[in-house]
Amino acid sequence: MNERLRTAMLRHGVALEDLAETCGVEPKTVERWINTGRVPHRRHRWAAAKLLTADETYLWPDVLESSQARRGRANRSELVEVFPDRASVPRELWLRLLSEAQERVDVLVFSGTFFAQTQPKIARLLTETARRGVAIRLCFGDPNAQSVETRDREEGLGGTLAPKIRSSLTYYRALPEVDGCEIRLHATTLYASLFRYDDDILVNPHAYGEPASANPTFHFRRLDGGTIAEHYMSSFERVWAGAVPWSGAEL
What we know:
The chain is built from twelve helices and eight strands. By secondary structure, it is of the alpha+beta class. It has an eight-stranded mixed sheet, with helices on both faces. A hairpin with a 2-residue loop joins strand 5 and strand 6. It is elongated. The N and C termini lie far apart (70 Å).
């Protein structure tokens, strides 16, 4: 017997017929929910939970267990590929993801020098992508930021990271003038470089003392019920919100 459902109905003065009417089912169906512990369809659970001002996972605890199992399967399914280092990501994959993007392309890096090197004429490619109606957002490290100086020191780059950022930005000087393209500079501690193309995202996490190119890269594709791809996409939004627009002039 589902004692939680029965008790909630008693406390709220909800008769069996009342719950049946709210959920659009026969009273005998509600009886089975109570007496046999049968778990209703999702829309019926939501209607009952709303009427009884209770969480559906309280009234039917099995729902939480099955939801967690589904979420676990979805999260594992979101992982498309693991590359031992960023250099192992095929150039063809970068080009395909960019050419197939329909809604947005988001990039979060410090310098992202390789991004232009693996995709010659990157500014033209991004311009053409934006003209298809794709929103382009590129977020580079602020070469004057303390976080850039710190990363340079931790990776033993000898003061070259800030110049690398300035050099990289020269590829994108004309993009701020293109409708649909935005470039910003961030001063955050960068834990992972992110490259999003609609529901696909390449995540290049940073390990202390190692250059980004030497660290693994994970290819995730967002799925209903999954949380990993969305986790990194939300991270990009937080950095983007605090970044400063770059006009393409100052370096």
